[in-house]
Amino acid sequence: MAFTPPPDKIMFEIYKDVARNGNYQVIYFTELDDHNREAEINRAANGEHIYDGFIRNRGKDQAKLVLGSILERLNSGEEVQAAEIEKELQPYTV
Description:
Layout (H helix, E strand, L loop, with lengths): L8 E8 L7 E5 L8 H9 L2 E9 L3 H16 L6 H8 L5
Antiparallel strand pairs: 1-2, 1-3
């Protein structure tokens, strides 16, 4: 039986895509379609885990902007610690 989070939460993970280009990515597990679910989950599973959690569905657009900013910093070479990610996402997490 697969895990299904409540509809008011979006499960995500930040990971480093070591198999392809080494860039940091974010995957929103609960927003995947059937046609891309398996490939995206496999890519994330083969990557280097950085951070995961749940964001609230309400306010998700702003949370995704924050996550995008974090990815830009990581991809530019900045070291962003898990505690800092948690602090920046705190207003949007469950």
